[in-house]
Amino acid sequence: xxxxxxxxxFSAPLKGEIxxxxxxxxxxxxxxxxxxxxxxxxxxxxxxxxxxxxTLEILKxxxxxxxxxDKNTVVLNAKNAYMAPKKELYCGNSGTTMRLMTGLLCAQxxxxxxxxxxxxxxxxxxxxxxxxxxxxxNIKSNDNKAPLVIERGKLKGxxxxxxxxxxxxxxxxxLAGLQTPDGTTTVLEPHLSRNHTEKMLQFFDADIExxxxxxxFGVTTRHSSLTPKDLNVxxxxxxxxxxxxxxxxxxxxxxxxxxxxLNPTRTGLIDVMKxxxxxxxxxxxxxxxxxxxxDIRIKxxxxxxxxxxxxxxxxxxxxxxxxxxxxxxxxxxxxxxKDARDLKNKESDRIACVERELxxxxxxxxxxxxxxxxxxxxxxxxxxxxxxxxxxxxxHRIAMTxxxxxxxxxxxxxxxxxxxxxxxFPNFLNIFENLRK
Length: 437
Description:
Elements lengths: L4 E3 L7 E5 L4 H12 L4 E5 L5 H12 L3 E6 L2 E5 L11 E2 L4 H11 L6 E4 L10 H9 L3 E3 L7 E4 L7 E3 L5 H12 L6 E5 L6 H8 L4 E6 L2 E6 L9 E2 L4 H13 L4 E8 L6 H8 L3 E10 L2 E9 L8 E2 L11 H9 L4 E4 L12 H11 L3 E4 L4 E4 L8 E3 L2 E2 L5 H12 L1 E3 L1 E3 L12 H8 L2
Parallel strand pairs: 2-15, 3-14, 6-7, 10-11, 18-19, 22-24, 23-25
Antiparallel strand pairs: 1-25, 3-5, 4-5, 7-9, 8-9, 11-13, 12-13, 15-17, 16-17, 19-21, 20-21
């Protein structure tokens, strides 16, 4: 059912302290990699968004026993994993679920089928089918799209040079390689993509090594057993990004966001905001379950400047680009985002959709083949007029970007399809309501 919300126009300042929502990437991996331990573990600060619950339900269908101790604490008992499923394994809208589960399932001795919703069924899966097939996986698809039918294959380790930096491709291969007795599996990338999988496998004592070779970033894994351990998921910087940027562009705001994951492969947004002269400070750094974490204080930043964003920083902020595009409309001068062609393969074509929706607010934004050219303010008041209607395209990040744009609009704005926010940030509206009190 399509759900619409209406922003009331020009927001009051955002003030206060909040906890960051649990990290979506780590929540997926905590279940999938945790199931490989063949033991019992407790996962704290687990994200209960729709995407991660899709992964949870699939693992239950495969024989894992999973129970909630409270809203965000899961006990996973994987002693009986993996059994042949009795039905199709439904991934919902989650590309992470489909791609990582393909890597896990191609090493099993039974047939399984991964399916998804209308949006996921349009997303390309060739990027994982091709390298997994080189390992010996037996995967049938609908013209390299879902549903994916996975049958028993004889896997062998390979060295794969990925043409793009993709954490999902890398993770799928590592999950398959970890279960492959024949040889080692090595993945080489042109840039370092997010490395939660490697860090979590190290946490669970997998036989895994990371290295650089000829300017490429590599990781090698071998068949190994994992040690069951309790794990704590850090906060999700991709979700926190919406709060960070809202605080930077809403007058008189001052927000502290606690427990943000500060994995260096995910902190491109912080680097860009500092480069644009945002008023941002990182506090209280720590290491939790082999992942960096800390707090961030962000204040209203009226003197931000546009910049160029491209190259090896793109994999470190690819999910934040829709809201970065909005940030750029509030900075002085021009911002150019390039080398982000993979935005076209997300839940929506984010280049076309972000351009289309931000233009409704009056933003001066031009989509390119691999990003955007955005003309920001030239001093003075940069509030949007508002009084517009935003579409979400089954994409949680487009919906949330539209909402933040509504907060700096003089008149109310309607955001259609807001239910898609549930995939990654179930308490999004509550957080903003609390910050405006």
